[in-house]
Amino acid sequence: MSAPLLAVEGLVKRYRRRRWSSEVAFSLAADFRVDEPATIGVLGPNGSGKTTLFELITGGNAPSAGRVMVAGQNIHRVRYRERDRLAVHYHQSYQVRKIRRTRPAFMLERATRESPLVHLFDEPQFNTQDGYIGFMLNFFRRLRRDERIVFLCLHPTESYHLEILRETCERFIFVCRGTLTLLPDYDALVHDERVQSYLGRLAPVD
After folding, report:
1. Is residue 14 part of a domain?
2. pTM, full prediction
3. Number of compact structural domains in the chain
4. Which domain holds residue 89?
């Protein structure tokens, strides 16, 4: 049996109030897998752990426990300069997030891929003029057709943001206070009570 494209296994990230304190200020936990190419929408309140999740998946942030397997390779054991051959994190204005280095490169293994399998878009900016939204949606779809995994994280402030998620994403992850809720489709997303509370006035009305 072949390895899943992406496996997030027992992943935990803890932030303590002070460096030597045992008191945890924030904790994120994630455990899921993606067996086939997909476009996955990610939502959640500010400070809930969405960017931390993306940093952990791309190897830009070291986990407190657990591991992230991309095409069967533990991304946190791959050389820093080669991690973007497995997964890449685009932040807001499509700038690629940098990797924090904690170990010498010679102690790490080489990436087994030449181009990223997982693409994570962290609250990208959508210009409503000059067909820019259509251009970006086509880009997401092309990555999906090329058998990649696409994560699209949005913090909806306008109704068209929900339309983008509905048209583009096959499944969803809702992140709240460091906890992930996996939702199989858009209908399940917008009918989840926690999601409706988060969306407020933007929540669809039956």
Report:
1. no
2. 0.91
3. 1
4. 36-61+75-202
